[in-house]
Amino acid sequence: MKQYLALSVVALGLACSSAKDTQTAGNGAPVSKANQEATNTGPGRPGTARDRKNRPNADPSATPHPPEFRPAPEDSEAAVTMDEDGAIHEIRVFKNHPELERVEFIWTDPKDKRVLFTLKGGRKVETRTDTISNLQAASAAELMSLANKSKAEKKADRPRLVNSK
Question: Of 98, 104, 55, 69, nearest to 83 (Cα)?
Answer without folding.
Answer: 104
